[in-house]
Amino acid sequence: MDEIEAIKAEIKRLNSQANRLKMDLHDLAEDLPINWEGIPDLAEQTHTTYRDLNAAKARLAALNGD
């Protein structure tokens, strides 16, 4: 698999994970104040995943010359 295809696969995986985490945050917010202790961990996971997703998109754009 070439580098572009590997990055596309990474983006697909990260996008799926980011969407799941986004929904988890939404569900957590709806249930507040129940499980409020989980906010920092879930927020950190979500932040890290979106950061990694944006970095992968930037790498793909650089390889494509965008």
Can you walk me through this structure?
The two termini are 21 Å apart. The longest helix is centred in the N-terminal third of the chain and has 28 residues, at 3-30. The chain is mainly α and 66 residues long. The protein contains two helices and no strands.
What value does the average pLDDT take? 96
Span of the ends, CA to CA = 21 Å
CATH architecture: Orthogonal Bundle
User: Could you tell me the radius of gyration in angstroms?
Assistant: 15 Å
| Helix/strand order, N-terminal first | HH
Strand content: under 5%
In total, how many beta strands?
Answer: 0
CATH class: Mainly Alpha
Helix content: over 70%
Enter the CATH topology name. Helix Hairpins
Unreliably modeled segments: none
Shape: elongated
**Considering the protein shown, what is the CATH homologous superfamily?**
Helix hairpin bin
Q: What number of domains? A: 1
Q: What is the number of helices?
A: 2
Largest sheet: none
Could you say which structural class the secondary elements and strand pairing correspond to? mainly alpha
Family: Belongs to the UPF0437 family.
Coiled coil: 4-31
InterPro entries: Helix_hairpin_bin_sf, Put_N_fixation
Keywords: Coiled coil, Nitrogen fixation
